[in-house]
Amino acid sequence: MPDILAIGEPMLEFNQQKPGADGRRHYLEGHGGDTSNAAIAAARAGASAGYVTAIGTDAPGDSFMRLWAEEGVDASCVIRNPDAPTAIYFVTHGPKGHEFTFYRTGSAASRYRPEDVPVEAIRQAKILHLSGISQAISVSACDAVFRAIAVAREAGVRVSYDTNLRLRLWPAARAAAVMHAAIAGCDLVLPSLDDATALTGLTDPDAVADFYLRLAPLVLLKLGGDGCMVATREGRTRVAGHKVDVVDATGAGDTFAGNFLARWLAGDDPVTAARYANAAAALKTTGYGAVAPMPWRAQVMEFLKKAGGE
User: Fold this and answer.
1) Where does 102-204 have alpha helices with state H?
2) What is the CB neighbour count within 10 angstroms for residue 185?
3) pTM for this structure?
4) Which of these, 46, 75, 266, 308, is most buried using a 10 Å CB contact count?
């Protein structure tokens, strides 16, 4: 079984491109879903990764099965549901950045239940990764995540949680209550500053770190282009970001999470792993789509080598 096991909802992606010669907008088909993205990013970084979800017995579901096979992500715990669809979403780009339109109501992943949780696979993993979206898509999926966390804690498996707040899925007050209850059972939390502000009302990064350190022993506060803060109960370090020509930030945070987990699992200390993850996330933003531009380990190492020489 894989060392890193992620739980959540995969979504077929249609990403808006620049107008073609005919002046029309075109959409590039791809793959998304935050924890699926993270699992793929971890696999490209050299880790053993797997995914836990439910998808339809439809063309988008078939596409994901091919994707995970191509990327070396174990899909043995994926359920195929003939009575529910695989979710899809559209990404558009404007003055305020990228925006999302989702079609996920009644998706197979949203019908995932606590009794569907693969207990033995989680017990054999080394890291369980999940997110706020994993819990926001339905009550049953939310309860499944809590069960997965309980199984992991009992087995001594480290648990990682990316907030990935989506206010279209649930109000901030409910999201905060559910997420913070889940994070209290985790070893690592990866909030963005924007998420943290919406969930806690805090705007100062150090105050945010203090808040989440009361719930989990390791906090990676994502600061966008400014990099991240690595905080433990013993101290904290700012890790600078990288300047690149940003094309599409979709999936950058997921790329960061997957690469951090891969390097943390490989034995890097949190600060070293965060430096690597920052570089991987920066490279991801230079192309369209959540998955296609994700870098492989050799690309990240070359990027870091060049950055260190500047």
Assistant:
1) 119-124, 132-136, 139-155, 172-183, 193-200
2) 15
3) 0.93
4) 75
* Residue 75: both structure tokens together: 């899909």
Q: Which regions in the chain score pLDDT beneath 50?
A: 309-310
Joined tokens for residue 167? 């206010």
**Cα distances (angstroms) measured from residue 132 to each of 6, 35, 49, 69, 109:** 12, 10, 20, 26, 14
Tokens at residue 23, please? Answer: 């002046």
What SS3 state is found at 59? helix
Helix (H) or strand (E) holding 97: strand 97-103
Catalytic residues: 254
How many angstroms separate the CA atoms of 290 and 294, rounded? 7
- Who's near 265: CB < 8 A, 6+ residues apart? 3, 4, 47, 126, 127
Give dist(CA 240, CA 206) in Å, integer: 16
Tell the burial category of 217 from Cβ atoms under 10 Å away from its Cβ (0-12, 13-18, 19+): middle
DSSP 41: H
Closest by alpha carbon to 288, among 122, 92, 138? 92
Domains along the sequence of the chain with CATH: 9-309 (3.40.1190.20)
Write the single-letter amino acid at 97.
G
Tell me what pLDDT residue 274 has: 97
Q: How many CA atoms lie within 13 A of 128 on its CB side?
A: 33
Among 298, 264, 301, 262, CA closest to 279? 301
**What's residue 310's pLDDT?**
43
